[in-house]
Automatic annotation (TrEMBL):
The lineage of its organism: Bacteria, Bacillati, Actinomycetota, Actinomycetes, Kitasatosporales. This is Beta-galactosidase. Its EC number is 3.2.1.23. GO terms for molecular function: beta-galactosidase activity; metal ion binding. Residues 615-674 form the Beta-galactosidase C-terminal domain. Residues 1-20 are annotated as: Disordered. Substrate binds at residues 113, 151. Belongs to the glycosyl hydrolase 42 family. It comes from Streptomyces resistomycificus. The active site is at 152 (proton donor), 310 (nucleophile). One of its GO terms (cellular component) is beta-galactosidase complex. Residues 400-606 form the Beta-galactosidase trimerisation domain.
Amino acid sequence: MTERLPRTPKIPYGGDHNPEQWPEEVWDDDHRLFTQAGVDTLTVGVFSWSLTQPAEDTYDFTTLDRILDRAAAEGRQVCLATATAALPPWLAKKYPEVNRTDFEGRRHRYGQRHNFCPSSPAYRRLATALAGRLAERYARHPALLAWHINNEYGGTCYCDLCAQAFRDRLRDRYVTLDTLNDAWCTTFWSHRYTDWAEIEPPNALTEHWRGSDHTAFQGTTLDYFRFTTDALLGCFLAEKEAIRAHDPATPVTTNFMGMFRPLDYHRWAPHLDFASWDSYPPLDAPPTWPALAHDLMRGLKDGAPFWLMEQTPSTTACRDVNPLRRPGELRLATLQAVAHGADAALYFQMRASRGACEKYHGAVIGHAGRDDTRVFREVAELGRELTLLGDVSLGARTPARTALLFDWDSWWALEISDGPSRLVRYQEVVHAYYRAARDAGADVDVVPQTADLTGYDVVLAPALHMVKGDLATRLEGVASRGGTVLATFLSGRVDEHDRAFLSDVPGPLAPLMGIRVDEWDARARDVVQPVEMGGSTHDARLVFEIVLPRGAEPVATYGADFYAGTPAVTRNRFGDSGGEAWYVATALDQPGVDDVVRRVLTRHDLIGPYADRAGLETAHRTAPDGTRLLFLLNHTPDPAHLTAHTTATDLLTGKRVDKGAPLTLGPLGAAILRTQ
């Protein structure tokens, strides 16, 4: 998978700039403050469609010309958006088909954003025309650094246009109705289709009850999720093609949203020149939550760096309660993104909007336009540090020997399934195993089922509900080479159509795991079963699979109920090279997951030197010239007193650190060590 990153002399720093919302005298203040803060990159034009095209046959580039020309005159670069994420009112009025129909079957009127039907010919025609006009005008502009198509793609439409497009997609995929009927198991409940026109989108009026996750036919809903991903991707590709007609060289991206369930970003990845995303983690989430999303974004392009396209400098404005980032948290979050592969650090937003729903969203510059606020000072100091860092981390990759499989199809299939438990959340299971590996000091690549696994010693496959293609064979290959594969409860259950495998659970993974599962017990969240492992007792919840070893040996056993004494965790020796396959049959608490994962990592010498330091994160990157970088991030409010495990230079301070010497990180402190 190829990538094309923008060429810059340092980490691009800045963010969303909306000067069209302000008189031009404010622009002068903006650029003065940008210079103070070290801002060199601006994302512009994201929501400017109604300004740039006030009528179907009228384009007005006056304001956008001044914005780009001013940026160039100030020595700043621009990530230019195509403005197609929010319809102008005239378009919705003239072509009502562009307004979405929601899950309950209601055709919406004009309003909000992300408000277009992806199957609308009028939207596709006018959006691509606008993208083409922008590319024709600005392809050779000196400020242009990258193209930013649309913005945070999302949302689903259930209109007649989408229904027909869905049928067309199904016809292309299945060719015959017999094949579709078999894939969807339509002999159930008399659903066998005899004409393509009989197929309806699965929504509240057809197959669903109690919301989008309760469906009578999982295969149908699963295919509609895939259709929505592809429909929105089609809009992106149409705009990209329009840009490429005038600009064959400038890199093109769109900003993703990390672990965003509605869209399978792996389907998008081959079509991006570089990945970018907007990071807004809950501020009470552990630091491994945004780290997981960073690594997922890096994994979209086979480990190539990504752009942090948005983060808040202080607060968000889209939740019921919006806590403020504490002093030092912004710096630490930004350096964490760089540690995990970010080659740009941008904000939303540069100046706070005066009105509408984001007027209280955090901004580099507040409503008063001051340069002496705490937030502005922190942004400016971070800009100074990134300038000192220069280009040393640009293009650097992560030398991970541990992979974690992340699969949107498994996510969808697991959470729309009526059983074994609707309390199991895919993200939470995946995060628990990712967190265990990261806390143990292992670098982790987060990869799709289709990834090449030959370079990894350890492959973690939590909640791998759906097994597709030759994945089981490739996982066996990891163990055959002496590596370790770990799978968990609810793995290996269904095929690509969400049909249960007609074999022992865990389906195609059973020979590798050396087990058979005939029964499983799902209980309420407050039901806790003890699991005995190596002299320790851990809590288990939600799902308790009853494992029958078929070659595997027990590592941990249940301590209660009629399955007391049966295996809860197993290990199976596989192949002639000492490979192993581990299976965790229940939702262990975090200490239990940590215990299992550390046993696996220890076998491959992947435990980091600071693994016992709670709240200390480590990450590695290797630059194209071979420079090795070790990031140390202290996520605690107390100083971290360490011993240097290698001789290095801290790029943030310029100080040399000798192996064995004391190394102290302040509260929420960080070091970037160039190692010898």
